[in-house]
Write a structure and sequence with these properties.
- The structure is a single chain.
- By secondary structure, the chain is of the alpha/beta class.
- It is built from 9 helices and 10 strands.
- A 6-stranded mixed sheet has the order 6-7-8-3-9-10, with helices on both faces. Strands 2-1-4-5 form a 4-stranded antiparallel sheet, with helices on one face.
- A hairpin with a 2-residue loop joins strand 4 and strand 5.
- It is globular, with a radius of gyration of 19 Å.
Length: 250
Amino acid sequence: MAEALRVENLSKFFGALGVVRDLSFSVPADQRRVVIIGPNGAGKTTLFNLISGEFPPSGGAIYLFGTDVTRMPCYRRTRLGLARTFQITDLFPYFTLMENLLLALQAHDPCAYGILKPLKSYSHLYEKAAVLLKEMNLWEKRDLPIGSLSHGETRLVEILLGIAASPKILLLDEPTAGLTHSESLWLANIIQNLLRDVTVIMIEHDMSVAFELAERMIVLHQGGIVADGSPEEIRENQKCREIYLGKSHE
């Protein structure tokens, strides 16, 4: 089976501090839901920053669909089919929902290089935006400024902007952060149903969401992988229990 993603002996040091240490794993192209968990400081977001090209690695290699992207800039990785969201939302709060989405769609369209025609002249972008907003049940709020949306809706827009790139791999960095339990389950349902054909690799702190979504779970601790398997295997893994609950002192 072809691989969507492979990292080999990946490391990242900040001075003497090793945040990611000699980390290796691969994700087959037909695997749709990989959830990465681990305590604070385990190296999860740093791993995403390495995969997406935000940080250069200190050692090791990264491959997307068989192409070595280790030293490739972010925008070229995007062209290969990689998209990501961040823990902290980075939207234009005074622009409407539709305007934010159109900007994201334009960035991945040939019209991004046109400077002589107004954006409104590109009807195909509006048509695609309408389809996405209706799928996400956000059509009625298309003309509202982003700043007026609820936190849960804002997190959903972040995912929507990631989908706008038509990715093959979507990295979601704690998409349910700051949401209530019911909002988290609502967002998990949307991820499950609207991203069926996309390989989603997700960092998640809400264990109920993580176990609900995952086909496979990777557990990080101190920059390395301590467990990798099905949700059932992770749930029964003694090392994972020790990391999250502390060692027994019986």
